[in-house]
Design goal:
8 strands, alpha/beta, 11 helices, Pimeloyl-ACP methyl ester carboxylesterase, 260 residues, 2 domains, catalytic activity
Length: 260
């Protein structure tokens, strides 16, 4: 599926199935394939559209602002009938911003651990060593620093993930991941704005995720007027890979609630 965004850059997405539309916005270091295991379980009942986010389109120039990404989401949403947004991590922040820009275009959202700013910047000075590592041609080290100091994964898990960044496919994404964090920081604390969103939302978190992600969900839950919360026991920040069936069931349940 292709649609022309406001700046005439083509937005690209994988469009499958029939029924009420679901527009999926993947998280960092990913592309439209990241949620295929989830949407494979939904496309027999719903029209699932997986956007390849502009931030992670290495064929497009950087830097990419959140407003640029909102334009891409809007271009795809214009081809659909008030889709429900499913956003993961930074993609969930993008979902919130898309709904703020034009709430009438969307039917609601499922937000999986959006790292919204609630106090100090998400990355801020903690990104400086990662940027320095990139400048030295060490994307694996840059990713390790980002995952350890910003995402707050364990040092061992961050180091293991950093090993994959030597492959060119992932080196390019490390640059975009740091840009993604900067784009979220550029928004600042938007809780007062999000409180104006009168749309149904499901907030999902894992009990094995870094603690700060739960705190950010707490802050959102307090301000969103029509949100409910779901905790995925035994899961962390990557249930789209580890428990796609459970995520698909949660999304399907939310979609069915909207019909009643």
């Amino acid at each position: 599926m292709r649609a022309t965004a406001i700046d005439r850059t083509m937005a690209e997405a994988v469009d499958e199935g029939l029924g009420a539309p679901i527009l999926v916005l993947h998280g960092g270091m990913a592309d439209s394939m990241a949620w295929h295991a989830v949407t494979d379980r939904l496309r027999d009942r719903f029209r699932t559209v997986r956007l390849h986010r502009r931030q992670y389109r290495t064929d497009l120039p950087r830097p990419v602002t959140m407003a640029d990404e909102v334009d891409h989401v809007a271009a795809i949403a214009a081809e659909l009938d008030r889709p429900v947004l499913v956003g993961h991590s930074s993609g969930a922040v993008l979902a919130l911003e898309a709904m703020l820009a034009d709430p009438a275009c969307y039917g609601g959202a499922v937000l999986y651990e959006p790292p919204v700013v609630i106090g100090e910047p998400l990355g801020g000075d903690r990104l400086l060593p990662a940027r320095a590592a990139l400048a030295d041609g060490k994307p694996g080290k840059a990713l390790t620093v980002f995952l350890r100091d910003v995402v707050r994964m364990s040092p061992a898990a961050a180091a293991a993930a950093g090993l994959v960044a030597g492959h060119r496919r992932y080196r390019d994404r490390v640059v975009r991941q740091l840009d993604d964090s900067d784009a979220i920081d550029a928004l600042g604390n938007r809780l007062d704005e999000y409180a104006k969103l009168d749309l149904p939302m499901l907030l999902i978190g894992g009990d094995r995720s870094p603690r700060h992600l739960g705190e950010r969900l707490d802050a959102l839950e307090r301000v969103l007027p029509r949100a409910r919360r779901m905790l995925m026991h035994g899961q962390g920040h990557n249930a789209e890979r580890r428990a796609p069936g459970r995520l698909a069931a949660a999304i399907a349940g939310f979609m069915e609630e909207l019909d009643h």
